[in-house]
Amino acid sequence: MGISSGLGQGALLPGLVLVKSQTIGSAVSSVTVSNCFSSTYDNYKVMISGGTSSAAGGDDDLILQLTVNGTASTANYNMTNPYWSWGVTTTFVRTGGGASFVYAGGIADSLYMNADLMLPFAAKYTTCSAFNIRNAVGGPTFGVHKVNTSYDGIKIAPSSGSTMTGGSIRVYGYRN
Question: Nearest to residue 130, comparing CAs of 94, 18, 139, 24?
Answer without folding.
Answer: 139
